[in-house]
Amino acid sequence: MYAVIKTGGKQYKVTNNEKLKIEKISVNVGEKIILNQILAIYTDKNIILGKPLISDATISAIVLAQNRFKKIKIFKMKRRKHYRKNKGHRQNYTEIKIISINYDKKIN
């Protein structure tokens, strides 16, 4: 069983006990969070699609860490113009572990 969720403007395919790095959420490490923007749930026999979201479903997760990705180097240059610019960027992320996928209605 897996689900497709939306968080931070991106979509992720998640299963139980999966570790995932998502866009930064303002919660403390060790706290439990509920993700409720679920686009689809896939079981062995059924597919439940939201229009656009499934209102009866939730996903429980626990926050493992608040970190930053590796530095991305940005280099701009215009040839023969003596223009060069170096920049760098590190994106913040929240690492979570999916505990359970909950759906209130009965799945046949």
UniProtKB/TrEMBL annotation:
One GO MF term on file is:
rRNA binding
**This protein's UniProt keywords:** Ribonucleoprotein, Ribosomal protein, RNA-binding, rRNA-binding
Q: Name one GO biological process term.
A: translation
* InterPro entries per record: bL21-like, bL21-like_sf, Ribosomal_bL21, Ribosomal_bL21_CS
Taxonomic superkingdom: Bacteria
The annotated subunit structure for this chain is: Part of the 50S ribosomal subunit. Contacts protein L20.
Supply the name of the protein. Large ribosomal subunit protein bL21
Source species of the chain: Candidatus Profftella armatura
